[in-house]
């Protein structure tokens, strides 16, 4: 039985169905806000736009509130509806995904603060190209992770997990080149360090986007693939497809 | 009604009680493993002991397995027992705390890797005193956070949350002094960067220990204090005490 049919057959209560769909929709709404914040933060940094960084930073408290609100709804549904099987997995994975989105928001807020410092420090733009590039990679991972949730698409979630390897590799390359630059020109250590922190935050955002994808795979497969290798994840995703 | 009496009156099933106590015990066992790994990692780094760092690094997979195991038990209890009120809060807070412990294990594993690199790089020990000091602070926070869970002690949990401010402040001071050192002596940039990453990991461990404390406060008070100020947390803890 596929996840979708299992999911819609386990209960006939219309309002229960609606509650479940609502938390999924709210997760996606929250994801859209986080995605926009991330995109604005990277643009603000690369463009030296302090106002845009400040605006994006303000979104942090909105994201925090959304996390608390969705999590509370998840707890209420568990207490009232006593869900099992796929319904329970939906609630658990939405709750965990919400937590990862909030952490992406945290890292993005850090990027906003560094963007403001970098803008005030002036013209050294070493590493900005890498920020733009890795920023685009992790934004796409986040977008795909959310789309995977919207469509219960395990194959797309696997793609996100795989993409994280590329981000890690690009991150290491960028880090090596910034270290070399610092050694050659120590006058810029302070501003280059800010760029290094930004890259670190982007790398972490990639990790959280991968977590998001793993929660979706748990939702559709019932297998908890956290701490699994890509190979194991691929097997799990393949089993899901064969069932459909 | 106090948390403890509420907790023991909501159901009479002996085996349900045992299941709930078991996940709490397993959380504390996992916490003990993480605490030991952290202590070993910091000692390995400061003492330049590659073997100890390697041994501590191996614990990472044990910690990951414990996370999956405890989380699976939490899901099973929800599905089978249909818990509400304080029982549901216990399960949710144990599941979330487990996740924070796993992340502390992740950061500690990073520290092990940097310890190995630093040991192979030789004699520059700039920042080691700060690593020792902040390492002790966050280890105590973790220990107290776990004790708070063992005793349902909201007051102690509040102390942990408060302690995080001190860690953040010590971290910023250490970071400033390492930046100055790098600028004055760029030959050591590479090894000092490794110490900087270690300090960052320790600062994050402090954040996760604070999260642990917040989950305990949610458990005993029913109020989700994530993203709350220390002042708000104090109020919540005070309400708990007045009820007892």
From TrEMBL, chains A, B:
Predominant location category: cytoplasm
Domain of life: Bacteria
Subcellular location: Cytoplasm
The keyword Transport is annotated on this UniProt entry: yes
Keywords: Cytoplasm, Phosphate transport, Transport
A GO cellular component annotation in the UniProt record: cytoplasm
Pfam families the record matches: PhoU
GO biological process, one term: intracellular phosphate ion homeostasis
Function: Plays a role in the regulation of phosphate uptake.
Family: Belongs to the PhoU family.
Name of the molecule in the record: Phosphate-specific transport system accessory protein PhoU
Annotated source species: Amphritea balenae
Organism placement in taxonomy: Bacteria, Pseudomonadati, Pseudomonadota, Gammaproteobacteria, Oceanospirillales
């Amino acid at each position: 039985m596929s996840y979708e049919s299992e999911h819609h057959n386990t209960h006939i209560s219309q309002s229960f169905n609606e509650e479940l769909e609502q938390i999924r929709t709210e997760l996606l709404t929250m994801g859209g806000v986080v995605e926009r914040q991330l995109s604005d933060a990277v643009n603000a940094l690369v463009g030296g736009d302090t106002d845009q960084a400040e605006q994006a930073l303000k979104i942090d408290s909105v994201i925090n509130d959304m996390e608390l609100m969705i999590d509370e709804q998840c707890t209420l549904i568990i207490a009232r509806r006593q869900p099992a099987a796929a319904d329970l997995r939906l609630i658990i994975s939405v709750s965990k995904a919400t937590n990862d989105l909030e952490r992406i928001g945290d890292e993005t807020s850090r990027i906003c603060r560094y963007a403001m410092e970098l803008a005030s420090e002036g013209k050294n733009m070493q590493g900005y190209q890498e920020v733009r590039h890795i920023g685009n990679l992790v934004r796409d991972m986040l977008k795909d992770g959310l789309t995977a949730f919207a469509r219960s698409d395990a194959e797309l979630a696997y793609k996100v997990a795989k993409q994280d390897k590329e981000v890690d590799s690009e991150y290491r390359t960028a880090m090596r080149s910034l270290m070399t630059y610092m050694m050659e020109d120590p006058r810029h250590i302070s501003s280059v360090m800010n760029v290094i922190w930004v890259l670190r935050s982007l790398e972490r955002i990639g990790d959280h986007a991968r977590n998001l994808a793993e929660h979706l795979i748990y939702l559709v497969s019932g297998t908890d693939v956290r701490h699994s290798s890509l190979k194991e994840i691929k097997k799990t995703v393949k089993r899901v497809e064969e069932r459909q």
